[in-house]
Design brief:
Beta-Lactamase; alpha+beta; 4 helices
Length: about 130
């Protein structure tokens, strides 16, 4: 999937959130930014942080619970959430979402369920879209 198509999908995700999402990013499992809904100077850092969080928690979950991780949500001090989920074939990608303060998490979850294209994204380690 070309990066422009991914960027358009991420932008659509933010637009459909009715203001609940500030931004959406897609990264590889090793933290390389692939695309962003509304590019900024912080995207590379957010992509790397999201991948590191997901990979670390997944390693611990597999070791202690014999189960993988689909996603992680962290509440920030200002009330926003940083939500990270695996996407793509065999969890090859990382979807990073930054919400507005005190978001409707149910709406965000429902929105993700209604955009199956996000789950179908395929990425290669250390590279762009596939």
């Amino acid at each position: 999937m070309p990066d422009r198509k991914v960027q358009r999908l991420l932008s659509e995700l933010v637009e459909r959130s009715w203001g609940e999402l500030e931004r959406a990013l897609l990264a590889t499992r090793d933290g390389v930014l692939v695309a962003a809904s509304n590019p900024s100077e912080y995207d590379d850092a957010l992509a790397a942080l999201g991948a590191a969080m997901l990979n670390g928690i997944e390693d611990a979950a597999i070791s202690h619970f014999a189960a993988g991780v689909k996603g992680v949500a962290v509440e920030l001090e200002d009330g926003r959430y940083f939500i990270v989920r695996t996407v793509g074939a065999a969890g090859s990608g990382v979807l990073c979402l930054l919400t507005r303060p005190k978001p409707n998490l149910g709406l965000i979850e429902r929105l993700l369920e209604r955009l199956p294209e996000v789950e179908e994204l395929e990425l290669e380690e250390g590279g762009g879209g596939g």
